Known about the structure:
The complex is a heterodimer of chains A (223) and B (294). Chain A is built from seven helices and ten strands. By secondary structure, chain A is an alpha/beta fold. Chain A has a domain at 2-93 and 159-222: Rossmann fold, CATH 3.40.50. In chain A, the strands form two sheets. Chain A has a six-stranded mixed β-sheet, sandwiched between helices. In chain A, helix 3 (99-109) runs parallel beside helix 5. Chain A is globular, with a radius of gyration of 17 Å. By secondary structure, chain B is α+β, with helices and mostly antiparallel strands. Chain B has two domains: 2-51 and 158-292, no CATH class; 56-154, Alpha-Beta Plaits, CATH 3.30.70.3040. In chain B, 73% of the residues lie in helices and 8% in strands. In chain B, helix 2 (18-54) packs antiparallel against helix 7 (156-197). Chain B is elongated and about 100 Å long. Classes of the chains: A alpha/beta (223), B alpha+beta (294). At the A-B interface, helix 2 and helix 3 of A face helix 8 of B. Bound molecules: adenosine-5'-diphosphate (ADP) and magnesium ion. Adenosine-5'-diphosphate (ADP) binds at residues 11, 13, 18, 20, 38, 40-46 of chain A.
Amino acid sequence: MIELHRVSKVYSVGPVKVPALREVSFRIGKGEFVVLTGASGAGKTTLLRLLYRDDLPSEGDVEVLGYGLVQMRRSQVAAFRRSIGVVFQDAKLLPVRTVYENVAFVLRVLGTPRRDITARAFDALRAVGLSARAQAYPAQLSQGEAQRAALARAIVRRPPLLLADEPTGNLDEAMAGEIVDVLKDIGAGGTTIVLATHQARLAVALRRRTLTLEGGRIVKDEG
Amino acid sequence: MLGFLVGEALRDLRRAGRVAVSAVVLITLSLAALGGFWLVSSNLGHAVAKWRDRVRIVVYLKREPPGGDVAALLERVRVMPGVAGVVFIGKADALRALKQVLGKDAGVVDQLPVNPLPASLEVTPSAAAVTPEGARELLARLAVLPEADDVAGSADWVERFSHWQRLLTTIGLGVGFVLAAASILTVTTATTLILHARRHETEIMRLVGASEWTIRLPVLLQGMMQGLAGAILALGALVVTHSVVAPRLEPLVSLTLGLSQLVFFTPVGVVALLGAGTLLGGLGGWLARAAREP
Ligand SMILES: Nc1ncnc2c1ncn2[C@@H]1O[C@H](COP(=O)(O)OP(=O)(O)O)[C@@H](O)[C@H]1O
Ligand SMILES: [Mg+2]
């Protein structure tokens, strides 16, 4: 499903080189739920961005869903991304559209037949427990609800891989718990999940395989 | 899918609001100016063409040739370069024509002791000869006919008129192009605003793997819609102006220019105008996009 081989990433900020990942190697199998943890600045976001080909490694090989991302041509990126759901710390909902429209937007963008859109959008909203809020606008949602709407949008196409970068970062403990429960449900359905979080307690509470980053290196791989 | 793309484009236009409206207004103005000048110029063009057809050079003859010689004389003139046609008008024909012109005063003519009107040849120049030089050369050639007494006619005034028509067309094109450039810039400004307002949509679209054309098309479409809307408004303004002005102006132009009616655009012209507007708007949209993503 995911395989990294001696992956390094160095950002160039003017003349300054910032090493963000150093010789990272690991494999994640189909259906695994993996927690990526480490202090702020450890390289979690950088690693996730390599996984959905938002950026390329400076060195090493990244293989995701059978695609070699380093060799991948630009024109193939769009097709590759359709198999991946991504959520961030901020929900990135479109403010002038309802929750339903935000979820349906993805289907419309990708040319899903009209008659399937409503059913599939509501399936996704039900999966995150938000079908009752379908007609609400993002400004009317709590942060936890907004994050669940973002999750619904990420899974509406039933992607085999879901990447979550600090999805609980803005939430209090109760709301964070809801998100984690939803993620576990999604994982139970067979979706491979990589969840990045700097919240050590959350990582422990999840009791899943945990990769720990420190200064761009994997220092622990346990569980 | 098309419905989605058009819907996105319309939503973008609403978001651009006043700037999109001013872009549409500018496109309307530029196309109304271009179209208006085009209409005036094509009507004048019709008048010029009509007048060119009417240019005649008259060769007054020293005396009426005997019947048998007329055919030979006509043949000699017909083969001259620059001659499209020639008609012989005998003294009697000329008198009859005069009587017709005089109408109820024709009685005066009957009082004349002799027919004072000379016989003449009415020469129609070929299209190539209806230029000032062409007409002068033809006049010179006709003047040396041994039968010729006097030669009259000139194409100078047609040429002067045609010169004005060309000048007007040039001014129209100039004004139109300046306005068109301004309207492209306004569409570009509106589109830049739209791209800014759209950045979240664009980000999400990229993230979920939308194809590049799905991302770009709404932006191009909204530009084209601005252009098309401007073109439709310009066309409407021209239709209204033509229908109000034409009936009032037609008696005057039929008297002065010899045009019985003022023409409007042909269907091809209408399509060209709408196409030009769509193109202007699309270009503005495309330029904004290109400026943002080198
Ligand atoms: N776009 C960037 N340009 C330059 N440096 C960056 C960029 N993104 C991240 N970094 C640097 O790379 C390192 C890892 O950052 P990041 O992957 O965001 O860590 P984390 O997500 O674990 O907090 C940090 O030192 C950060 O400053
Ligand atoms: Mg981060």
